[in-house]
């Protein structure tokens, strides 16, 4: 909820608006979903281009598919 141009989302929103100003707080709120989406894409791409078995060995159901008998 907005009161007087300040984001009333707890102490973090008020402290952030004191440091950078309300314009940049609003810009950050508008860009947050985009940044989260691109971060997820980058994380998925990183797993895709690296050794994906190394990452998936920690997923409970899938990890059994990669067991090798030495």
Describe this entry's structure for a reader.
It is a single chain. With 70 residues, the protein is mostly helical. The protein has 4 helices and 2 strands; from the N terminus they run E-E-H-H-H-H. The chain has a two-stranded antiparallel ribbon with strand order 1-2. A hairpin with a 2-residue loop joins strand 1 and strand 2. Helix 1 crosses helix 2. The longest helix has 28 residues. The chain is elongated and about 60 Å long. The N and C termini lie far apart (60 Å).
Task: Compile the SSE list and pairings.
Elements: E1 2-3, E2 6-7, H1 11-20, H2 22-49, H3 52-56, H4 60-63
How far the N terminus sits from the C terminus, by CA atoms, comes to 60 Å
Strand content: 5-15%
Q: Considering DSSP H and I runs of 4 or more, what fraction of the residues is helical? A: 55-70%
Mean pLDDT: 76
Order of helices and strands: EEHHHH
Query: So how many helices?
Result: 4
Strand order of the largest sheet: 1-2
Shape, please? elongated
Unreliable runs: none
What kind of sheet is the major sheet?
2 strands, antiparallel
Q: Rounded to an integer, what's the Rg over CA atoms?
A: 21 Å
Secondary-structure-based class equals: mainly alpha
Number of distinct beta strands: 2
